[in-house]
Amino acid sequence: MTPSPAVKAALSSQAIETPSWAYGNSGTRFKVFAQEGVPRTPFEKLDDAARVHAHTGVAPTVALHIPWDRVDDYAALSDHARERGLRLGAVNSNVFQEDDYKLGSVTHPDPVVRRKALGHLLECVDIMDATGSTDLKLWFSDGTNYPGQDDIRTRQDRLAEALAAVYERLGEGQRMLLEYKFFEPAFYMTDVPDWGTAYAHCLKLGPKARVVVDTGHHAPGTNIEFIVATLLREGKLGGFDFNSRFYADDDLMVGAADPFQLFRIMYEVVRGGGLTPDVAFMLDQCHNIEPKIPAIIRSVMNVQEATAKALSVDADALAAAQAEGDVLGANEVLMDAYHTDVRPLLRALREEWGLDPEPMAAYRRSGWAERIVAERQGGQQAGWGA
Ligand code: LRH
Ligand code: MN
Ligand code: MN
């Protein structure tokens, strides 16, 4: 397959952000299986992320989660990243792990708790100022477990008030990305359960507010690519939290459970002109039983392969078949692209970039896995189940 210069350029400019928390220990609420050699500090998480970028060439930024990645000196953390060819990416807020937030954070009935949660969100913007990060990612676990527990509409008012205060605080070039999730930990009603709710808030806030699509946050059978197409059409897609799910919010490797869905999503991204720095391609995963760094390398490659396949769709042939109402022909054009083996193209591209064409093998040979086991004692948990 001879890729067009446009396809090569698109693949060369794509950047996939890895999450700091994927490098640390994690598990389910039943058990964290600690691994040897995991990072003990946010600085060491960056050291691992640098290996992912070194072998793939397309993972130059790392998302932080506060307070999991709280440090005294964020400028030093930025420097540490820069020295390893990385930059700090989205700052993820965390208002879901303190006792005070039992009934919610920014939607809590008590104004004292709401003020505390807002204070944390504003602190995250301060951190962005120090790190040079442009995106604040907001996910709220807020919701209720029982009908009547709290007033749905009043909680939306409280949410809108907090979001407006954060929006006001954003500086030049900074954005806020609002993430939705249909349930968990709230089981009856979640305050930001779906893209419609997130979109409504972002629309009211203004152009710096965008919606984040976490692929694991939908009910089974949801047509996620439709959501992507719609948000892109409205100029409101801020980015992705990529992962795979079989059942609920499984946080497995992106492209592992349903590579065809990932292809369909990436096709809508390409179709909607979303392969730009305006759309953040982030991973949000936890590697509970598999070795973490290779799992992240594999995930980055899965996104890259789905992107390459989406770029291989013969747009003219597809448009012609669609215009003729050729149902099977149109479907065949899309499936041809999905079935294209893009791995030779990506190997060739990596060679052009001066990288080993096989990132997984190169990582295995690098000796990094053995080195961190020898050098790091008492690694850190990501924060989940800590
Ligand atoms: C919530 C979520 C959100 C959090 C992350 C750790 O399920 O997807 O993005 O910040 O997990
Ligand atoms: Mn997420
Ligand atoms: Mn999630």
Automatic annotation (TrEMBL):
InterPro entries reported for this sequence = L-rhamnose_isomerase, Rhamnose_iso-rel, Xyl_isomerase-like_sf
Which keywords does the record carry?
Isomerase, Manganese, Metal-binding
The protein's GO terms of the molecular function aspect are: L-rhamnose isomerase activity; metal ion binding
| Any GO BP | rhamnose catabolic process
Q: Where are the transmembrane segments?
A: none
Tell me what this protein is called. Answer: L-rhamnose isomerase / sugar isomerase
> What is the native source organism of this protein?
Streptomyces zhaozhouensis
Organism ancestry: Bacteria, Bacillati, Actinomycetota, Actinomycetes, Kitasatosporales
